[in-house]
Write a structure and sequence with these properties.
11 strands; mainly beta
């Protein structure tokens, strides 16, 4: 059974940075795309970023509102995916979830992801 465990969330002031980590265990990490999603108070869960998998490195994709501020990366040897978040804004406040895609190519459709972590809270104060 695949398990995903997020860490790195916390409280930060606007303009600050956080680095989220997601450690995978119990299954195959390589060969699958990975994604980050978030769910703010009273909102639906939304796509944030994704990274595909290939022997030469996976392509990345971001929602428009985080482009240029967030960077997704992966370390296949460690079975870990990261989300570096810079220039944080209050509207980035949410619970952040990592998820494993059913395939190797990135997608932004929540239905394409079958394993999810428990989430980590990110709070950005103004």
């Amino acid at each position: 059974q695949v398990q995903l465990v997020e860490s790195g969330g916390g409280l930060v002031q606007a303009g600050g940075s956080l680095r989220l980590s997601c450690a995978a265990s119990g299954g195959t990490f390589s060969s699958y795309a990975m994604g980050w999603f978030r769910q703010g108070p009273g909102k639906e869960r939304e796509f944030v970023a994704a990274i595909g998998w290939s022997w030469s490195g996976g392509n990345t994709y971001y929602r428009d509102s985080v482009k240029g501020r967030f960077t997704i990366s992966r370390d296949n040897a460690k079975g870990t995916v990261y989300l570096q978040m810079n220039s944080l804004k209050p509207e980035d406040t949410a619970v952040y979830y990592c998820a494993r895609n059913k395939g190797s190519r990135w997608t932004d459709d929540i239905n394409d992801y079958d394993y999810w972590g428990q989430g980590t809270q990110v709070t950005v104060s103004s």
